[in-house]
Amino acid sequence: MPLRPLAATLAAGLLVASALLVASPAAADTPDDVALSGDPNVLAVDDGEIWVGTASGGIDKIAADGSTTHLADLGAQVSVLTVAGDYLLVGLASSPVSVARVDRTSGAVVSSTIPGGILGLAGIAAAGSRISIVATTGESFTADLDTMVVVADAVTPGCQAVTLAVVAGSEIVPCIDVNGWRIRMLSDPSGAWTLVSGLPVSHALAGTASGVVHVGAMSGTSVTRYQVSGASVTPLAPLTVPTAPFALATSPDGSRLLVASPFAGQVALVDLVTGAVIGGVSVPAGAPVAFVGDADHVAVARAFDAEVALFAAPRFTLPAAVELTSDEALTITATETGMPGARYTSLRWQTDTGSGWTDVPAATTSTLALPSSAVVDGARYRIVATSALFGEVASAPAVVTVAHSELAATGAESGTLALAATVLMLAGAVLLAARRRTLASR
Question: How would DSSP label each residue in 267-313?
Fold first, then answer.
């Protein structure tokens, strides 16, 4: 390696493994609050968009960038909200109780009264053009999505239904009667019931694509779980959570569970693979909850503030590859690319030279700076953000390649030639001296 000027050497010596401040950590418990047309009562999510039904009968849309659109006013409290293709299906606490189909683009409304003088709706689910509707008094109905004509389907005597959830293609109805809390398949009204623990209020039942049903409660710190397969319901080991599981939501990939308690004002995130609590935040009177698009974005309805709080996992992007010469210092700047509501409490850089990830000392902001002497050819670097709700979130790594500069190679070659020339000169001098001694002796 060639000698460098003294000033350059001193400058390199002053570089330490540190990050130059570019983006300050945001407060972990301060989400992006989105104002609504009324107090949020129910949430529905589809394709990264959040649909909110309010206590005053409004339907609001929150786009992925946090902007809002007021879509419709339905004149009665929205008690149930679900997405069915191009439409929203809405249960209204009107008198008489009705169900409405709302066009997601135009806001056009088609509504129908639920027959039988029922007192309220527990849930609505759609499968193709067929709509399933369950009343709180145990009656079930069907409707056609195109005509919105509602007809009675079946009655479950003594069942006070609380919600309707679609889990692995099966429609699940939890009810309470003299025997306690039970769940059954809507498609089999005369089928077997399964007793469940807890209190599955309208927001406290969530399922995964693999058929696992999670049931919450208004008190305690336990979430009971059941495996649904066909018409059978098998109990699984319960989960322990840090707050009363009044509202639940599962991530689309089934790997995480959101648990919210409006009474404690807390929201926790649970890893369903390990059962560990990843993190939690405080949200005043927050319920219900929903994952938005993926496991990295969360919406929490602020029940009495006419707002939805948006939380997002912090996401950073690094250059995939960084090329340096052997005497060049390393600088990598992480670009924040998370969705609105991203918060983190700390940052740190890590490196992997082949033996696993280790922390880079003193590298705790969004730009990493290392002297050339600390850079290893082929090493990987990443930034890790710590979030109160989402835990540790690591970026994709940047791979560093160190190439020997032409100047260094030329210098090495010149040094070799100079050494060879010196050896030849010394050898010539020795031969010349020996020749002179030989001539002098004659």
Answer: EEEEETTT--EEEEEE-TTEEEEEE-SSTTEEEEEETTTTEEEEEE-
The beta strands (E) that lie in 150-219 are given as 150-155, 160-161, 165-167, 170-177, 180-185, 194-195, 205-207, 212-215
Cβ 339 vs Cβ 62: under 8 Å: no
Nearest alpha carbon to residue 150 among 81, 102, 98: 98
Beta pairing partners, 302? 286, 307
146 phi-psi bin (left φ>0, alpha ψ -120 to 50, beta other): alpha
Quick one: DSSP state of residue 188? -
The tens digit of pLDDT for each residue in 137-174 reads: 778 888 899 999 988 876 666 666 666 666 656 666 66
Residue with tokens 């959040």: 50
Instruction: Give the largest CA-CA distance in the chain.
Output: 140
The dihedral region occupied by 433, where left means phi > 0, alpha psi between -120 and 50, and beta the remainder, is alpha
What is the tens place of the pLDDT at every residue in 291-337?
877 778 888 888 778 888 888 889 999 999 999 998 999 999 999 98
Separation CA 261–CA 367 (nearest Å): 38
- 357: which 2 tokens? 């990830």
